[in-house]
């Protein structure tokens, strides 16, 4: 069984088209999936040129027409970007609008059952907002357009899995939400279990990070642990879940990477993102380029599968052909892995 996946191109002014082209040059991708790129021909042609790729482009009208032949990138053309209508390394309303429309189209395809999942390339949040779409990121767009009230951001690398209680909000706001809305912690723990089940882990070991240093030292550095986090953990344990915590944030990720937990529930964006990227990204200090980018961002709780690269548009290197496509390959492979669980009969 090969699963049909919509792959959005991302912002054309960044490295999105490049990492898509490079990932789809991997013959192994086609063993388990039929990728269909949602984007525009002009940026894909550009990317093939500066990547010196001999892959061919084949425009199709519906995902059902895709053959999934290696050496041929099959794509749906939205007609939004033409040659020269965008500038590399520059945020623009046009590129932001196009990137947004690629996402909406892919969501529609998944909701209609025309694809088994969506894999997204990086977008530029400022460009999307300048185009009039006021979302803080992919996660919120998917939640809105799939009418999903409870969802979470899962990050994975080869050695670590992290899901977040809060994501794209100011740190001050994250602390307020955790204190005043303790059900968010309970929801995140439930989403952590759901995510692990999608990855084939039936009885996941879940660790919940504290918010404050040393989990507040019994209230010396805050009360969020005793007021919100610990009660949520107790409720989840009572329902039969294997949950430990709150675990001090400075040690929980070390324990997870040692294999003690299957997933960590992080309280806010950077608490989860920093260890995940340290575990999966490797940079060459002299050139400033990434030698390895192993990491996937998934939205859990949606009625559809959505995975993504775990990096941004990288405007600073766009158009040079030097972007690392490792995260895009990983995102495609994880979407396939989830599809095998969600759609066992195809």
What does it look like?
Helices cover 38% and strands 20% of the residues. The chain has 346 residues and is α/β, with parallel strands linked by helices. The chain contains 11 helices and 14 strands. The protein has a 12-stranded mixed sheet, sandwiched between helices. Helix 3 packs across helix 5 and helix 7 packs across helix 8.
**Strand order across the biggest sheet?**
3-4-2-1-5-14-13-6-7-10-8-9
Main structural class:
alpha/beta
User: How much helix, percentage-wise, in residues?
Assistant: 25-40%
Judging from the principal axes of the Cα atoms, what is the shape?
A: globular
Average pLDDT figure = 95
Percentage of β-strand residues: 15-25%
Q: Report how far the terminal alpha carbons are from each other.
A: 7 Å
**Individual helix count:** 11
The radius of gyration over CA amounts to 20 Å
The unreliable regions are none
Order of helices and strands: EHEHEEHEHHEEHHEHEHEHEEEEH
**Largest beta sheet, briefly?**
12 strands, mixed
Number of strands: 14
